[in-house]
Write a structure and sequence with these properties.
Strand content: under 5%
Oligomer: single chain
Structural class: mainly alpha
Number of helices: 10
Largest sheet: none
Distance between the termini: 65 Å
Radius of gyration: 23 Å
Length: 235
């Protein structure tokens, strides 16, 4: 009896469970957050080239400039705006425009009228983006069927509507359910894009010139603000 009482209890597997939970959440975040970022460059590149003068008139400098704009837009928006600034400005662990509005209201007290106006504008932009982004993302993805055959052209809009309706019906069960489906799909999609890009880099190593922000600045200088379309990546 004393031996039984003296036997050490098995160590709880809290760490391994937390580790597994971390990777599950990471995979879910890939499906919910990065799915749009993975599709946005497809239509952003096309629309930017068209705005810069059309596909037939595009030059190598335009392509490098657009890629540079996209690259540095992602770096500035994701790394600087979100990771450095917004993640450090939380309201008791909560984020988002409304939480930041409440935080600013506490700091300014009765002098926060202007902040309230900015908060309402930000909330309006957020809801507008939430409405238009799924439609643009899904429509742009389905339009890829036309690259296979033009016979799909009449079915692009109906297929898009069907996908969006199905997504919103599934989302009523919770974001976790959607993340469980789209996490692996988005991860496979990003790996496919990465492999496809790495394979073709030896064909033209000069594409690394996009890492030079001067190319982005020169592209805007040549084409004006109209040519600056990677704002679509901000969604």
């Amino acid at each position: 009896m004393s031996d039984i009482l003296a036997a050490p209890a098995p160590a709880p597997k809290v760490k391994s469970a937390a580790h597994a939970g971390f990777w599950s959440l990471t995979l879910g975040c890939i499906g919910v957050v990065y799915g749009d970022i993975g599709t946005s460059p497809l239509y952003a590149l096309r629309e930017t080239v068209i705005a810069a003068g059309g596909i037939d008139a595009v030059t190598r400098a335009d392509i490098i400039g657009v890629l540079s704009l996209m690259l540095w837009s992602l770096i500035v928006i994701v790394t600087l705006k979100y990771v450095v600034i917004l993640l450090s400005a939380d309201n008791d662990g909560e984020g988002g425009i409304l939480s930041l509005l409440a935080l600013a209201g506490k700091a300014l007290g009765s002098h926060g009228g202007l902040i309230l106006v900015f908060g309402l504008i930000g909330a309006g932009l957020f809801y507008g983006d939430a409405l238009i982004t799924p439609a643009i993302s899904v429509l742009s993805a389905v339009e890829g069927l036309k690259l296979v055959t033009e016979a799909f052209d009449p079915f692009v809009v109906p297929i898009t509507l069907g996908i969006i309706v199905a997504l919103f019906m599934a989302q009523s069960r919770g974001t976790a359910a959607v993340a469980g489906w789209f996490g692996p799909i988005t991860l496979a999609w990003m790996l496919a894009m990465a492999i496809g890009g790495l394979i073709h880099i030896p064909d033209d190593p000069g594409v690394f010139a996009a890492f030079n922000p001067v190319n982005a600045i020169e592209f805007v200088a040549r084409n004006g603000v109209v040519g600056f379309m990677p704002w679509a990546l901000c969604s």
